[in-house]
Amino acid sequence: MKRRDVIKKGLIGAGSVAAATTISAPAIAANRIEISMVSTWPRDFPGLGTGAQRFAQRLADLSDGRITAKYFAAGERVGAFDVFDEVASGNAQMYHGAEYYFTGKHPGFGYFTAVPFGLTATEFNAWLRFGGGQELWDELSGEFGLKGLACGNTGVQMGGWFRKEMKSASDFKGLKMRMPGLGGSVLSKLGGSPVSLPGGQIYENLISGAIDATEWVGPWNDEIMKLYEAAKFYYYPGFHEPGSMLSVQMNKKWWDGLSKMDQNIIAAAAAQENEYMYSEFSWKNGAALQRLLSQQGVQLREFSDDTYDAFGEASEEVFEDVQDHSALAKRIHQSFAKARKEVGGWNKISDVAYVQQRNRVLGM
Fold it and tell me: Cα 139–179–339 angle (5° rounding)?
């Protein structure tokens, strides 16, 4: 072989190696995904905040560290109620929160956390996955450049903390109560003044008297918040949040640019947290309620049937207002109502009937 041929082949070989190096290095780098994730919850807040942080960690675990999320709690990067715009604009890739905080953007978002006389956690999952709920949520979120997934559920929530006994619906007139979403709209129909506050600001407003009452989640979270220090009457059941679903919302353009595998990893992490959080709340609420009653002097009260009837009548008025908003809002409500009738009908003769009989037999 002539010397110049050796040199030529050597240069070609070196060029090939260089080309391969040039191609492979960016490909490896591009395969790593770094996410900025903002949240509506305080850092390390049990259940809600820790669930969001757990989801972020699960992304790394399921991808062997290839997908990482830098988590920002409420106020660390943007305010709790600013996460929607932060992700829609592309400044962050995802947020963890509650969709009903953003009914000001569109009332349809309320249906993807909880609405008055709505769906329980298991009914919610059925609607999302088999009843067309996810498709409607995708359509709604897509109008704002977002893509959402279910990522947690607190189960049935309590009716709230009150400084006085709530003997009838008329007691809500003039009441300043922290209650976001469409539940707050029901309060307005009853003559109350709903106030929307992030979790981190509830205690200070209740203890100072800036609000007269509040709902939050349930005994476990409410005990941690020490809401009993400002109000002793604890009412149940909550008409406004029968199965509050939390969500992870992502910038849609960013989501669409991911591979199917990476989309599935994120979806799997969200689905795992959706189940895990519900289990956690179900386990911890009972013991927390007993501590509130035995150690903190909390007085447990049940809303009267007449009061609940008033909640129902006001809710129907709110639903009419929602449907007047837009064609999409009407389709969301009609789909939800269909699911409530069909899945709820089955639930009545399955879960509800069984639990009633079990508790009767066991004297619970």
Answer: 40
